């Protein structure tokens, strides 16, 4: 019995790690919540790839971005990504919580971000808060805020 439970536990952990890269229990998520988590994951990849065309479509025209060094708007964030002023090289997502309230969604991601900032490679632990608004059939990112945290930081589910 113990070995069966342990084997099942290992299988669930592997599936969650390989598919979601998070500690989120996907069986409890709605379709909209899973879609938002996937959209957020794609956003991190687009940032790493410097795919400003896809990001420009995702970012709401009035979106704001809060970083350790300042706050700026959509055009400035796109320019920062395009020029490589900040290169979001790789975001390892350790945990994510998503809440959908009517046409607004909030995601909290605990990540380790590997970035190149002003020519120096840095790795930083963050909780990133993302706010989305549903417009028609798509979600638009309204806000992205990086909060520096310790690696032991936990997001309450």
Automatic annotation (TrEMBL):
Residues 1-20 form the signal peptide. This is DUF4440 domain-containing protein. Coiled coil: none annotated. InterPro entries: DUF4440, NTF2-like_dom_sf. Residues 38-141 form the DUF4440 domain. It comes from the Bacteria. The keyword Signal applies. Keywords: Signal.
């Amino acid at each position: 019995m113990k070995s069966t439970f342990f084997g099942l536990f290992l299988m669930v952990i592997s599936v969650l790690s390989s598919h979601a890269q998070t500690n989120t229990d996907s069986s409890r998520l709605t379709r909209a919540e899973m879609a938002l988590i996937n959209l957020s994951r794609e956003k991190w990849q687009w940032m790493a790839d410097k795919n400003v065309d896809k990001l420009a479509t995702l970012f709401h025209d009035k979106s704001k971005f809060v970083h350790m060094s300042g706050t700026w708007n959509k055009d400035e964030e796109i320019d920062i990504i395009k020029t490589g002023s900040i290169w979001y090289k790789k975001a390892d997502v350790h945990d994510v919580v998503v809440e959908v309230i009517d046409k607004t969604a909030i995601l909290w991601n605990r990540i380790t971000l590997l970035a190149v900032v002003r020519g120096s490679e840095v790795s930083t632990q963050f909780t990133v808060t993302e706010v989305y608004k549903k417009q028609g059939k798509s979600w638009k990112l309204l806000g992205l805020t990086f909060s520096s945290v310790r690696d032991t930081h936990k997001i309450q589910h």
